[in-house]
Amino acid sequence: MDWETYVYASKFFGRQRPPLAYERFCQPHASVDYIKAESFTYLDFFKGYLLPNVPCVFSSAFTTGWESRKYWVTQDGKPNFDHLLWNFGDAVVPVANCNVQEYNSNPKEQIPLREYINYWKEYIQGNYSSPKGCLYLKDWHLCRSFPDQHIYTTPVYFSSDWLNEYWDELAVDDYRFVYMGPKGSWTPFHADVFRSYSWSVNVCGRKRWLLYPPGQEESLRDHHGNLPYDVTSSALLDIKVHPEYPKCCPPIEIIQEAGEMIFVPSGWHHQVYNLDDTISINHNWMNGCNVATMWHFLQAELDAVQQEISEWRDTMEDWHQHCQVIMKSCTGIDYKEFYNFLKVIAKKRISLLEKVPETKPLGNLCSDSPGLGPHHAAFDLSRIADVLASLITNPDFQKLETSELSPPPEDLFNNLKEKINASL
């Protein structure tokens, strides 16, 4: 990031902004931008898509050098089962059954990849049918399990990735996934974890995406307030059950070809189908451009929990702490861990500004992308400071026992302001 972009981004978040306008995506047959030029820079992406929070698709030219695109695919564009079995056959993988609805998702089981590929071959031979149902390998942490495999390189456009940077620091989890599934496998309607961004590349095969701009999902809720499992279901036409459905704009439909890369912005609900036998690589990620969105999401989740157990507020000891525990079980994070998340990223950016060598680069595992420079570090710190200021003054955060947090949140905030001012 250069100085000009830093100033531009600071003004973007510094002024009192009206709600982002997505009107152009609510028109019939709306489309997204298709990026062909390899001269397209990180700053082009940052200004044109990250800040305004709008989707785009990159051509297959951006992923031609990936080893997975060379070796995981046969000459006729199909999954290379032999290569996958030879390299990963004994790995245990999560597999979802697309034919079974469990709340608004599908139940999963853990099986060896070898067993799943045998099923997949039989499913193809059975004309894409099986008594076992349509099974979809989803959310496989292949990169974490096989760190020496050079499967792909995280594109520079997505390399400012606080989510995976944080979990790499803890060395317990990540949000980098491989998906594999036969033609007809699909993912029900959802928005991504923490309202993060996501990017997805088809190593082989094609996907059909149905995307809705933020806010449109409210028109899809039923009279109980629940979101649909399948936005293509005719049940949504019953206005007694879905009274707001006539107000909803049509989805943006994208056919993603082999090798292409799609960027899904924060809060865009979507539903995805595999049109062929498909393998894809996917990341959930976030950074300074959408950290406030994550914070708003967490506040809304806690508010929902508090309403759900409000009747026990006066009789339950440590009611506020119980709400945090429930929220963490539902979302994967509570307010204290969110503070720790902000702190870890802040310390790394301060180290960069002070030119102190870090134990780990800003680039991710399975990525050789470089750090993004001092101006980007200063931008990140300014975004952390804004969200931290809101967290510190939040009444629910103030009710928690925060004495064990180190440094104290107020001290971290003051340190951030000093570092930001010094860097400018």
From TrEMBL:
This is 2-oxoglutarate and iron-dependent oxygenase JMJD4. InterPro entries: JmjC_dom, JMJD6_ArgDemeth/LysHydrox. Interacts with ETF1. Interacts with the ETF1-GSPT1 complex. It comes from the Eukaryota. It catalyses: L-lysyl-[protein] + 2-oxoglutarate + O2 = 4-hydroxy-L-lysyl-[protein] + succinate + CO2. One of its GO terms (cellular component) is cytoplasm. The lineage of its organism: Eukaryota, Metazoa, Chordata, Craniata, Vertebrata. The keyword Iron applies. Pfam families: JmjC (PF02373). Residues 143-302 form the JmjC domain. PROSITE patterns: JMJC. Belongs to the JMJD6 family. Keywords: Iron, Metal-binding, Oxidoreductase. Transmembrane segments: none annotated. It comes from Vombatus ursinus (Common wombat). Its cofactor is Fe(2+). The keyword Metal-binding applies. GO terms for biological process: positive regulation of translational termination. The gene is JMJD4. One of its GO terms (molecular function) is metal ion binding.
